Structures are given as structure tokens and as C-alpha cells.
Amino acid sequence: MLKIHQLHKSYPIGDSSLHVLKGIDLSVKEGEMVAIMGSSGSGKSTLLNIIGMLDEADEGEYILDGLPIKDLTEKKAAVYRNKFLGFIFQSFNLINYKTALENVALPLYYQGMKRAERQELAMFHLEKVGLTDWAKHLPKELSGGQNQRVAIARALAANPKLLLADEPTGALDTKTSYEIMAFIQQLNDEGKTILMVTHEEDIANMCKRIVRLRDGIIMEDTKVTQVRAEQYV
Amino acid sequence: MFDLDLWREIFQSINKNKTRALLSGFTVAFAIMLFTILFGIANGLENTFEKFFIRRAENAINIRFGTTSKPYKGLQIGRQIQPTSADLIYLKKEFGDNIEYISSKISRGYQVKYKKQKGGYTISGVSPDYQYIEKAEIEDGRFISLKDIYTKDKVCVIGRLVEEDLFLKESAMGKYIDLEGVQYKVVGVYSDGGGDSQERVIYAPYTTIQRLYLGNDDIGNISLTYNPNLSVDQALALVKDMTVKLKNKFDIAPNDQRGIRIGDGVLNAKKRLDNISSGLGALIPIIGFGTLIAGILGISNIMIFIVKERTKEIGIRKALGASPKSIVSIILLESILITAITGYIGLLIGVGILKAVGSSLERYFITNPSVNSSILLTATIVLIIAGAIAGFLPAKRASKIKPIIALRDG
Fold first, then answer.
1. A215 exposure class (CB count in 10 Å sphere: 0-12, 13-18, 19+)
2. E strands along chain A, which residues?
């Protein structure tokens, strides 16, 4: 599904440069649920951004679903992002003047889907996250947990191969965090491959595999027994 | 290709961010309003200049004959120069197409009577061409005809005010007026945009005047219009040429200023006014254009601000798969739409202001300031182009936004 080989990334800081990723090797199979952990500055967000084609590596190989991701034009990157990837962010990143339904339908708009069709599909995904009654509401009228569910519905809308989550529970309280995690676990049960950055142990333990980063290298890569989130809800 | 969804996106963006749209729209509306008013005033000034020349044909000049002030070729000083109808033919022959209309003008004052009404009027003995030189509009009947010149009949064409003064409410047509004992038949009534005094003149065939009062072939002065296709400079050259040739013909010293005078004062004034109006004509578009540029810069600035404000949104859109092109279209079309609509509103306000205050500006030499439909059409096209220019840079900038930077939390 995803294969990374000797990935390097540096950021220029003034005259010198900061070597953030120092040769990452990682491969993720279909249906996996991986947590990337590490303290801040360990390079975990950079890695996720490169996987999400929001950033480009300086060196190394990145193959997504058999496609080498290298030297993409902006246009091509846009198409790949739309087709392969679904994003879930810590701060939800919903468009504030669009309703829940419109937000969910947006990736479908960029796929070129017809209006009636994409609204129907967006409604279907909203139903999946249990927000049918909130479809016409703006993000500011929804709670944090509800907003994150809208964001998940949006990430799912285009039916991506890989779901990328950057601290998806970072802005939520514990109870809501577990609700969201239960939901993400359910998506994984249905077969979605999920990659998630977090720095919370309990959240990481709800995944099936933990990759620990420190100073730009993978320190540890272990399979764990998944803790089900439902039991806390 | 019309993309309904794209327009929906744009309308939603404008609709949900009304303050923003209003703010940028205001700049454009204001700029276009100023632009319209400036153009209207420019047109008003031009109208004033045109009105200034309506008294006579713009290309009319007078040749006046007087007494010599210098001896020449053994001829004495103080000799009266007296042209005859042969000189009309000479001029016509000599200058051909450069002369459009030519007429003699024998003017003198008479007491004129009709029944109990009487008054002093100028009687001018003229040729049929004079109608066009003076720009006399026939209200009733006809002007002096060629046949009148040959038959030397006692007919006359009177000004509108002469008819009003002497005939009161009656029509003057076909009636006879008394010019110090001689009865003239009124064959026409004219009006003249040049003002009241121009409508208190009575025209008669110059040959009739010659026959009844002069007893010779003298023709008084000569009025003519030069070919309207000549430029002011060419016309001035023509006047010079004419002066030299006439002085030669009448044996007047070349440096004698009094024997023959050709009124090129109007031409000189016209030249000055042409300079002023072409100066204004050049200046006002520059000011107008400057205003427009300021408007474009204004909206461009606001669009840049808008892009900055929307950085996160654009980042989200890109993360969700928006191509750079679709980002450019959204920003660009929003800019064009705002510019076109608010610009049009500015245009309407400008036209409204011109209409409202237009008539009160006459004492500032501005007559009937207005913009015509071709300018409005041009302005509309300019608006759309302006919107595109104003939106282009910000749109380009927006399309270059990296989603990762836009999405960085906190």
C-alpha cells in the first residue's frame, strides 16, 4: 500500500539547515492502523505531510499504491491528493462559511461530480458519522466532536485509499476523543488503511501498530494489541 | 464553458463575506463614479466650445475694404478701396475649392415700417450663399435666390425677431414692408442661433441694393467660408495668400494694414481654443485613466488582503484536491464580478450626478455634461478588464499557497 525508503528532509533555518528526517524506512500494508509517535520536533508531522503530498522529500523513495510520488506538478499532486488521500486535522480545517453538508461535498466537487450526486453522497457520509440532522449547520454551530466528525465524513467522501490523521483528538476532551477513536477504529474494521500522528499513549494504543520517531529516525516499530475505544464511551 | 458550480462557489463566497465584498466594491464604485463625472465634464467643456462657434459657420471669414494708409505705385494715401461683383468671380476662380461659399455684403441701417409698427434695422444686400455662411435657418418661405440676383427684385428675407417686432402676431410671408419709401416683399423668415441681434437683420439681393441705392457695381464687403476640410493652419495660410493677392489686385502697399482687412481673428481664437480644448482633451483622459488605475490598485490591494485572509481556506481546498487553476478562477472571477457590478453602480451614480447638477454648471463653461452610450460600453469592457487585472496577481499568489503552510495549526 505504502512504501518509504531512505526518506530525508531538511528545512533551511537562516544560513544553516535543520535535518528533520534522517532516512526513514516504512512500509504500511492495506488495512493497517498505524500511530506515529514522538515528541515535538521528532519529525512525525513532517513525515505525515510528505505522505500526504503536502510537502516533498529531499531524498528517498515514496511509493503509494504502486505509484512513485516524486517531482509532482501542483496539478498532479492535487489530483493524487483528491483520489488517494483523506485528511483529518487537529483543528478540523472546515471552511467556516460552508455548512456541514457543503464541507463534506467539497472533495467531490473537485472530483468533478455533479451537484445532485455529490450532495447525495455527502449526505450518506454525514449519516455514517451520525450528523444527518446537522447537515445544514455551519461549523461554528457545532461542537468540537461534531466538527471532527464532519471532517471525517469529508475525508471519507472521496473514498480514499489512505486516511491521514494529524492529532485528530488533539483539540478534544477525553470522552469525545474516545468517541472519535471508536469511530476511526470502526472505519479501520471496514478495511480503511489509517495513518495517525499522535503524542498520546492511550490514543496510540488504540491503533494496531506504533512507530516511534526520535530526532528524525524510527526508534521503534511494534505491533500492539488494539485497545477498543467503545468500552470507554 | 459555463461552470455553474464554480459560479455557485463564487456567489457563496461573496454572499458569506459581504463586508469584504462591499469594501472592495466601494473603491471601484467610487473610482468609476469619478471617471464618469470627469468624462462628462470634459464633454461639457467641448459642448461649450462648440456652442461658441455656432453664431456663424465655423469656417466663415470676412473681407473688409477700407481706405489706404500708405501711398503705393504713385497712388495717393487715403484712397477708398471698392470691390465689385467681378472680384467675387475673381476670388472664386483664384481659390477654387478652397472657398466653399462666398457672398457680398452691403450693409446699411434703415427705418423699416409695416402698418403702424416701425424700427431701425440693418439691411444687408447678400448673395444666396450667405444663408450658409451665416447659418440662417429658414423658418418660413425661402432665402434670397439666384433668380432674385438676376431680376434685382424688391424682395427680402427677415429675421424671426423682425417679424415679431413689426408683424406682431401676424405672418409676414407675402406682405410688403416699407424701407424708407420702397416696398419690399417678404419671401422668407429665418432664425439664427447666434443671438437676438442676428435675428434683427433684413436680407435683400445685393443687386437690388446696388440698383436702388448705389447705382454702381460696388459690393461692400465680402463674406466667405473656406473649405471645411482645411485645418486651422491651412486656413490661416489661405487668408494670407488671399490678402497678398487682393492687395496686389487693388494696388495696395503690401505693408498697408488698412486697405483690406481679412478677419482672421476668429481663426486665431479658434486656434487658441483648439489648443485649450485639445489640451483639456488630453488632460482629462489622463486624469480619468489615473483615477481608474487608482481604482484597480485599490481593488488589487483588497484582493491581496482577501487572499491573505483566505489563506487557510485555500490551503484546505488544495488539500482536498483543488488544482491551482481552480483557485485562480475562484479569486479572479470574484474580483471581476465585484468590479463589474460595483463599477456599474458607480457608473450609474456618476451619470445620475451629471444629470442632477449638469444644468447648473453652465456658468463654469460646462454645457450639458454627459457621457454617451459608446463611452458606457467602453467603460463596461474596461471594468471587466480592470477586474481581471486587479484580481490576477492576488489569484496567482493564492494558487501558489502551499497547503502545508496554510494548514499549520496555531
1. middle
2. 2-13, 16-28, 33-37, 59-64, 67-68, 85-88, 162-166, 193-197, 209-214, 217-223
Nearest to B313 among A89, A95, A107 (CB): A95
Residue tagged 447659418 (cell numbers): B135
Within a 10 A sphere around the Cβ of A73, how many other Cβ atoms?
10
CA separation, residue B90 to residues B39, B93, B230, B245, B251 (Å): 47, 5, 21, 10, 15
Which among B4, B14, B320, B323 is the top mutation candidate for probing chain A, defined by the most A β-carbons within 10 Å of its own β-carbon? B320
Report the C-alpha gap between B82 and B68 in whole angstroms. 11
Instruction: For chain A, list the domains and their CATH numbers.
Output: 30-57+70-232 (3.40.50.300)
Say which of B320, B324, B403 has its CB closest to residue A82: B320
Distance from first CA to last CA of chain A, Å, rounded? Answer: 32
B405 touches chain A (CB under 8 A): no
Best of A83, A106, A164 to mutate (most B CBs within 10 Å, chain B)? A106
Which residues fall within 8 angstroms of residue B111, CB to CB, at 6 or more apart? Answer: B118, B119, B120, B179, B180
C-beta atoms of A79 and B313 within 8 A: no
Distances in Å between the Cα of B263 and the Cα atoms of A187, B22, B243 are 100, 60, 10
* Interface touch B409/A90, C-beta < 8 Å: yes
pLDDT digits (tens, 9 = 90+) for B39-82: 787 777 777 776 665 555 678 888 888 888 888 888 888 888 88
Scanning B310-323, the segments in alpha helix (DSSP H) are 311-319
CB A103 within 8 A of CB A150: yes
For residue B210, what is its C-alpha cell?
Answer: 446696388
ipTM value, please give it. 0.89
Residue A17: which residues within 8 A CB-CB, separation 6 or more? A10, A11
A23-48 tens-digit pLDDT: 999 999 999 999 999 888 888 888 99
C-alpha grid cell for residue B346?
458607480
3-class DSSP state for residue A171? coil
**C-alpha span between B403 and B316 (Å, rounded):** 7
B-chain CB neighbours of A148 within 8 Å are none
User: What is the grid cell recorded at B232?
Assistant: 486651422
Q: What is the pairing mode between strands B182-191 and B155-159?
A: parallel
Q: How far apart are CA A158 and CA B247, in angstroms?
A: 98
